[in-house]
Amino acid sequence: YPTWKRTLMRQAREAQMKRFCKAQAIQRRLEEIEVTFRELEQQGIKLEKLLRDEDGTPADQKTQWMNQLLYLVQKKNSLMSEESDLMITVQELKLEEQQWQLDQKLRCYMNREESLKTPEDRAAEQEILVQLLEVVNKRNVLIHIQEEKRLSEL
């Protein structure tokens, strides 16, 4: 291989490893969020029981429990938002990988001499281009969703 091809292949492997590491980190964080959800759920159940069995409990104690319960709900909502962001990122990584694979296939067809291409090669090249456009459009939709979410949070 010429030097430029080796460089491109190395860069592609590095990008693939970055995507893989990012996917692993996301998976770990999703598992942490799941554990935190369970903990919050247990705390919420305890607080609800305390609020239901409030016979003779001072009003300020009830208020404190309600505030704690509201805090748990707020924390759970923020974790759900983070989980949603992570799921979008996972989809984005999948589409990025798919785009890279399609790009590699397309390069193989485009590197062939035009006179040596069969009609099947040309049709396959067109099909890959269509798939590549679909992937790019899907990534664009994900970015648009993220932007809308960010703006709504502001």
UniProtKB/TrEMBL annotation:
InterPro entries: bMERB_dom, F-actin_Monoox_Mical. It comes from the Eukaryota. Its main location: membrane. Residues 23-50 form a coiled coil. SMART domains: DUF3585. It is found in: Membrane. Keywords: Coiled coil, Membrane. Residues 13-154 form the BMERB domain. This is [F-actin]-monooxygenase MICAL1.
